[in-house]
Amino acid sequence: MVGGIAVGGLTGLMLPVILFGMVRGNEHTPRVGPGAAARKVLAVLVFDVWLLVVALLP
């Protein structure tokens, strides 16, 4: 149950942050490109799957 809550919290927090980074940037933190954003989203989803598998193991 804790793993399921963590998956929802992690995904719900990281996806908007990644998408926000694609449209917002300044001279200190440049915008995130579409390729880098896709890799970050994929990394979050892979970690979510791993966390779900670990949560379901007895």
Structural account:
The protein is mainly α and 58 residues long. Helix content is 78%, strand content 0%. The protein has 2 helices and no strands. It has helices spanning 2-23, 34-56. The chain is elongated and about 50 Å long. The N and C termini lie close together (12 Å). The model has no long low-confidence stretch (mean pLDDT 83).
Short key terms for the protein model shown above:
58 residues, mainly alpha, 2 helices, elongated
Question: Outline of this structure?
Answer:
This protein is an all-alpha fold. Helix content is 78%, strand content 0%.
Number of strands: 0
Mean pLDDT value: 83
**Cα distance, first to last residue?**
12 Å
Radius of gyration: 14 Å
Question: What share of the residues does DSSP label as strand, in percent?
Answer: under 5%
Shape: elongated
Mind summarizing the main beta sheet?
none
List the secondary-structure elements in sequence, H or E: HH
- Secondary structure class reads mainly alpha
* Tally of alpha and pi helices: 2
Poorly predicted runs: none
Helical content, roughly?
Answer: over 70%
